[in-house]
Amino acid sequence: MGRQVGLLAQVVAALAGTLIISASLNAHEFWIMMSAPQLAPAGTAALSVGFGEQFPFPTPLPEAGEVPIRVFSPSGAAIPLRSRSQITPEGFLAGTFPGGTEAGVYVVDASLYAKAVDYTAAEFQDYLTRERMSSALGFRKALREETRDAREIVTMFAKAFVRVGRIGAVPQRIQTRMELVTLTDPTVVRVGSSFRFRVLSTMGDCQTR
User: Fold this and answer.
1) Does pLDDT of 111 surpass 60?
2) Residue 185 lies in a domain
3) Average pLDDT, whole number, for the chain?
4) Residue 180, domain member (yes or no)
5) Into how many domains does the chain fold?
6) Is 149 among the domain residues?
């Protein structure tokens, strides 16, 4: 089927970014791509995780062990990856979906903690202006820091779904600090249609569609 972005990966990244002052989907993107989002029982698929300013082009990720990838079965059991994840020359973190025998929707989860992003003063001012972060711009102006370089620390989460067999269902919650929990089967969503989900975080939760 070719590469497909995990259904909610970019949305999770955007919402995770709201927890810190200057992360948003337009500026920083964190995503999971699957070579095949639907598999026969015991089938495997290549997966890759990327982080970058412009999807789908990644910037180098930290060491592979610093970006954990987890896979959960439809019943919620953790399943190890088929092969050890590794950083590719292009900057992706690559691994292999392990293949499951339990029919249903599997969840692939990736977490990026404390990723440092460095800016020159001009780049940072442009970034804040582009993202309409007026409070941050005012704060830098008040401190006379408009000509100072900046470093941003971001933490982001991404999710993708893989359906094994013909049976789909609502995926299990995996208990990350910020998570989109779908209230319907995400693998049957078609272009132009809608679905309901809940946003859960340490700051509370809300429902939307």
Assistant:
1) yes
2) no
3) 79
4) no
5) 1
6) yes
Give the Cα separation of 159 and 123 in Å (integer).
30
Q: How far apart are CA 19 and CA 195, in angstroms?
A: 24
Instruction: Please report whether residue 88 resides in a domain.
Output: yes
Local structure of residue 66 (DSSP, 8 states): G
Q: With the CA atoms of 117, 67, 13 and 148 taken in that order, what torsion angle do they form, in degrees rounded to the nearest 10? A: -10
Ranges 33-37, 47-51, 136-140, 185-189: which has the least confidence: 185-189
- What is the rounded average pLDDT of the residues 69-73? 91
Residue 132: domain span = 4-171
Using only C-alpha atoms, the chain has a radius of gyration, in whole angstroms, of 18
pTM (2 d.p.): 0.73
Spell out where 74-170 has E strands.
78-79, 86-87, 93-97, 104-119, 150-164
Task: From 15, 14, 13, 27, select the one nearest 136 (Cα to Cα).
Answer: 27
**At residue 25, does pLDDT exceed 70?**
no
**Residue 29: CATH number of its domain:** 2.60.40.1930
Where are the alpha helices (H) located in the chain, listed in sequence order? 9-17, 121-130, 134-142
Contact 47, 34 (CB under 8 A): yes
Phi, psi (deg, nearest 5) at residue 18? -70, -10
Q: Averaged over 79-93, what is the pLDDT?
A: 87
Query: Residue 37's pLDDT band (boundaries 50, 70, 90)?
Result: confident
Tokens at residue 164, please? Answer: 């094994």
